[in-house]
Amino acid sequence: MPDEDVVVPKVGIRDVARAAGVSVTTVSHVLNETPHTRTSEATRDRVRSIARDLGYTPNRLARGLRTRTSDMIGLLTEEIATTPHAGRIILGAQEEASRHNLTLAIINSHLDAGADARRADARALIERQVDGIIYATVFHHEVSVPRELRAVPAVLIGALDRQGVVPAVLPDEASGAADLVALLVDAGHRRIAFANSSIEVPATQGRLVGYLRGLEEAGIPRDDRLIASGVSEAAGGYEASLELLDREDRPTAIFCYNDRMAMGAYRAAQELGLRIPDGISIVGFDDQAPIAASVYPALTTVALPHYEMGAWAVATLTRLVQSSSTSWYRSTHPTWLPCPVVLRESVAQINR
Amino acid sequence: MPDEDVVVPKVGIRDVARAAGVSVTTVSHVLNETPHTRTSEATRDRVRSIARDLGYTPNRLARGLRTRTSDMIGLLTEEIATTPHAGRIILGAQEEASRHNLTLAIINSHLDAGADARRADARALIERQVDGIIYATVFHHEVSVPRELRAVPAVLIGALDRQGVVPAVLPDEASGAADLVALLVDAGHRRIAFANSSIEVPATQGRLVGYLRGLEEAGIPRDDRLIASGVSEAAGGYEASLELLDREDRPTAIFCYNDRMAMGAYRAAQELGLRIPDGISIVGFDDQAPIAASVYPALTTVALPHYEMGAWAVATLTRLVQSSSTSWYRSTHPTWLPCPVVLRESVAQINR
DNA sequence: AGAGGTTGCCAAAAGGTTTTGGCAGAGCGG
DNA sequence: CCGCTCTGCCAAAACCTTTTGGCAACCTCT
After folding, report:
1. With a 7 Å cutoff on the CB, does B66 touch strand D?
2. Which of A60, A126, A294 sits opposite B260 (nearest CB)?
3. HTH lacI-type domain: which residues (chains A, B) (predicted)?
4. How far is residue A234's CA from residue B71's CA, in Å, rounded to a whole number?
5. Fold entry, domain A173-304
6. Interfacial A residues in 157-216 facing B (CB < 8 Å)
7. Strands B192-197 and A103-109, bridge-based pairing
8. Are the beta carbons of A123 and B70 separated by less than 8 Å?
């Protein structure tokens, strides 16, 4: 029983015009509140109320065809949708888009699908006449953006444009790491170890740089015996921590490359009979969704600004679109967004 | 220096036609491989190669206007984008959409934004002429779908339509839970506790039902002293586990409502000096991204079919769209997708 | 040679909107 | 009453496709 679901024939601007006894021009002007146009208040009211009564729903496809803008922006994620972080980026982008009355169209390219597939994906977005494209990648290597992206304003998340022509946003991992070290130093630690990831990605470099900078700013000399590495998972953190803790003059704190490695550090500490944080302080990186808060004791770590990067991307994109279409490719410096320290319970104050 | 970035005027189907010396009709037919149309092989080749050379990019807005279909499907998530699971749903939907040559437009509604906001979001998608809408919610309460959704084929993820008119897909939590219990039973356990969540959501009910069914199928009598509950986080799991383990005849296994609570159980076990899995076996639910695999010992748990639900949703939606537009609202049973057990290391074989 | 079928292509309409360039009428000053 | 400026509205073109209906030309029989 299709209750009141009689098939309602689509009502268009024409129907509104007819019902209101005006031209479609007038309806369009009224509904869009076109400036510099003259329509009596009476007519405006009539048009508006009739449009409402008729249940008029504008057709944005038609509108887009005429105005040559779709009010859509494309989010091209490269493998990233697979990572737990992806949701935050998408959410940030989506909410910022909503704020600007834009809609987000997303496509995920598999990393191993090759450059051709990625170009096809970009093209698909462009065929849809998106006003701009966000290209988000997992590791911020330098990247040469698919040339189709030149056809349309674009911004990069998590990667640098090799030609330096496309605006990019990245997490400022180094500063985050340095802040974390500063936090440890403030708590009285001076023998601070670093369990880095053994695979070479920009994050590895950035966090190491930040660690060293943190030490330097505290006037603590670098000690390479306090730097270990392992695979960027619990197992790697376990082994690296064992190595770091298995000596006379053991560190009082371990800074792990990421939260997963920190989990390994927790295990190592437990096996050595060291309580966290009193026996050993441990910090991580990533503030990975449920881990950091669920573990005991809750892990002090650094959050990545995924949401913020997503939002930044669509914000800059809209600026780009607004600005003269000939100037948007002006060379820009990448934007580094801060990675805030998330204070929890895995760091103890120690007496110096 | 805008290298070869001279502003290329958009090339349309008309330009291709002119260059090829044929009509736009022919170009359209050739490029779309319209069936039942006759064009010589020579002309086809010419058109295709000219289109390629000119870099013709079809305008899907215009196409959609004419064909009255946008090849877009809308994903309306209600708060869900905030949860770590969201990414998987989106990914599943996206990849299935790609397979059908569709694009996914997503909008996230905040739960607290109220029904009006959600209706506005639905309307925004409809204005974009999406061919169908997926409405995904966090908790699968029954839900009365925004009436705007009646205007367009729709499917539900994680919720039931109160009117029973919109197809819905849900995780079969009960069976997953029963499987988990069966696994424990197979390993020799008979005193199996359940640490449930204290808040009332469908999942609470479903997992409890599955737990009980698992026991029954194993011929183990229900023992309510083995059922505890707490907040659905590490803290709640900790307290519930303490309560369950603090007795003479303690259980040999604890089934936790979710992985976060399982983390609490791990802590409780540790404090009581029970090794996992030998002293006590622990299982969770959700297979929450990095937790379950990173913890030591790795947690045996049950995965939710988020990806599969996303994919199912767009698959059914495309079927709905294809089928006669008058029949798509036929009443349907909800689809329950299996929650597979993920075997890891937190369960020990014990001798009966 | 005419009928009838095929082949290969095309002109024009349609889809729903925005935007341009007006045009009538009212009001007003002279 | 003429000329001028506003006011309030409109017709038609444009955006880029797809699709309908048909038309020449050619071929094949009889």
Report:
1. yes
2. A294
3. 11-67
4. 43
5. Rossmann fold (3.40.50)
6. none
7. unpaired
8. no
Residue A22 gets the label, from left (phi > 0), alpha (psi -120 to 50) or beta, of beta
Judge: domain A70-171+307-338, CATH 3.40.50.2300.
Answer: yes
Chain B residues 19-38 within 7 Å (CB) of strand D: 24-25, 28-29, 31-32, 34
Q: Which residue has the tokens 């299709």?
A: A2
Which of A154-163, A314-323, B41-50 has the highest mean predicted lDDT (pLDDT)? B41-50
CB B290 within 8 A of CB B71: no
Domain ranges of chain A: 13-58, 70-171+307-338, 173-304
Chain segment A247-305, per-residue pLDDT in tens: 888 999 999 999 999 999 999 999 999 999 999 999 999 999 888 899 999 999 999 99
The whole-number Å distance from A40's CA to D7's C1' is 9
Q: Select the residue from B103, B119, B232, B346 to test the A interface by mutation, using most A Cβ atoms within 10 A.
A: B103
The pLDDT tens digits of the residues spanning B84-117 come to 788 899 999 999 999 999 999 999 988 778 888 8
For A38-91, write each residue's pLDDT tens digit: 899 999 999 999 999 999 999 999 999 999 999 999 999 987 666 778 889 999
Contacts of A65 (CB under 8 A, 6+ apart): B59, B61, B62, B65
Q: CB distance from A62 to chain B under 8 Å?
A: yes
Q: CB distance from B270 to chain A under 8 Å?
A: yes
- Do domains A13-58 and A173-304 share one topology? The answer is no
Measured in angstroms, the CA of A311 and the nearest CA of chain B are apart by 14
- Tell me which CATH homologous superfamily contains domain B13-58: lambda repressor-like DNA-binding domains (1.10.260.40)
Task: Give me chain B's average pLDDT, please.
Answer: 90
Q: Is A84 on the interface with B (CB under 8 A)?
A: yes
Chain A residue with minimal CA distance to B150?
A5
Give pLDDT tens digits for A98-114.
999 999 999 998 877 88
Instruction: Name the CATH code of domain B71-171+307-337 (choices 3.30.300.20, 3.40.50.2300, 3.40.30.10, 3.40.140.100).
Output: 3.40.50.2300
B81 touches A: beta carbon within 8 Å = yes
Q: CA of A63 vs C1' of C18, distance in Å?
A: 7
